[in-house]
Structure formats: structure tokens, C-alpha cells
Amino acid sequence: MQIRNEEYQQFKPLLFSLGYRLLGSVSETEDIVQETFLRAFEITEQEIENKKAYLCKMMTNRCLDVLKSARYKREQYVGPWNPEPLLLEQSHDFDPTEVVLQKEGLSIAYLRMMEHLTPDERATLLLKEIFDFTYAEIANIIEKKEENCRKIFSRAKQKISLTEGESLNYEKNKSVITDFIQAFQTQNMDALLELISENVTLFSDGGGKVHAAVRPVVSLSNVLALLYGITKKTPEDFYLDIKNVNGQPAILIYMNKALQSIMSFYISNKKIHEIYLTVNPDKLP
Predict the structure, then answer these.
(1) Which residues form the RNA polymerase sigma factor 70 region 4 type domain (predicted)?
(2) How far apart are CA 19 and CA 51, in angstroms?
């Protein structure tokens, strides 16, 4: 398939955006994007009329292969699994900063919810709801009948709420997180009760590489006890920074002059309902 340089620049962001939402992994997605283009260059026996659709089909099917093979790996994963955070405030030469086409379907909360779906359900839901493909186009991409795709989409919508109620207002969420940091540091329980749901759940992803809670931590008291326990062991050069991660404000935690973890949030009605603490060094930028 002949792909001009301007087409490569046009399609690469789309493929990355699709692959990252399917896999939740920056490194795996980057590898598959390059693999997709290399395979496309090798296609010479036919003229491809719709290059965008054909490349999306190649990308989607390769990601589905990875997802299906990753099922066993996910089952063997030590502790909760969080998507790899995508830090969108980096230097200009960091490629993924400019390849996210839209903010919908990008938050850590959304990507975690996708884990409740089968690979086909995940692909169908993303292609339809985020990338606005028709059922006919989706049927061609995932190689199923159009009617089947409609049923798969309906089933996926019934399985998960797709972060219904999630606030995606960056500045308002940043204000909530800033207030949370101040209330936490001053141990202002009244303020914390206003900011955090009583039934808050914290998912700590260490992947067996570093110390982390191996089960989700549930309830405000348990989550605060865990966080206060962590801060008691921090070195003197410990500091926090709020950055754009997956299109939403997140807390970057630095220790010993290096990024130690990233804390992302699910915020609804100005309250924190879920916290995603990623400490697995393989997932930190």
C-alpha cells in the first residue's frame, strides 16, 4: 500500500489513539502502530480505496490479538491492573503528546471500565462511540456481520455505565484535587468528607515490582489510613505536582529525585469516588 508522508502524519495519531484506548499501554500501542504501517507497505497486490478504514482494521485486529493473549497475563497480574498513564505535559519531542485526537474515552476511569468487556465488545464500543464508525464499517473491521455488531454494542453498553456522571471539566477537577491535597496535608477531616465519597475505592497498581496493596482498598477511612501510612515513610525531598494525565488532572509524586507514582481520579459531582495509584515502574514515564 502506498502511503504518502502526509498520510502517514494524518493516520498515525488516529491509530495510536485507537490502539491506546484498546490496550491501555503506550509502549505496546507505539509498537503496533509501527508494525501496522510496515505491514501496510508490504501490501502490493491490490489498490486500497479507503486507506483509513484499512489501516484501522489492521490496527484493531492486531490489538484484539494482543488483548486475547493478554487475558491470561492479566489474570496472573499481581494486584489491581491500572492502564499505563499517558502524561500529556512533556517536551515537544514526545510523540504521544500530539496524537490524542479527542478527550472522550481517554480517562483512566474509562479505560479501567473497558476491562469489564470482551475484546470484541471493547473494539465495537470504541469504534462506534468514540470514533463514530458506522456499523457497516465496524463489521468490516472486526470481520463480523453488521447485525452482530449491533448486538455486541448493545451488550457492551449494558455491561458498563462508561463512567456515567464522570466529570471531564479539567479546571473544576483540578480544583477538587488541589483542595484534596491541602485537606490531606492539614488532616482536615471535615474538608476530606466533603471531597471524598464514603465508599471511595483505591486501586494500587504495583504489578509485583514494588510494594503496593494487592487488593482494592475500600472506604474513606481505609483509603486515608493507607495514604497517611505512605506519607509517613517518605524522604525529605518528597514533593507533589499536578499534571495533565489522560486529559485529566493527576498528582505526580516524586521521591529521591525521581517520579515514584501517579495518582489519577474518578470525580463525579465534585467528589472523588475512585483513586488509581500507579506505582509499577514499568508504567511510569
Answers:
(1) 109-160
(2) 17
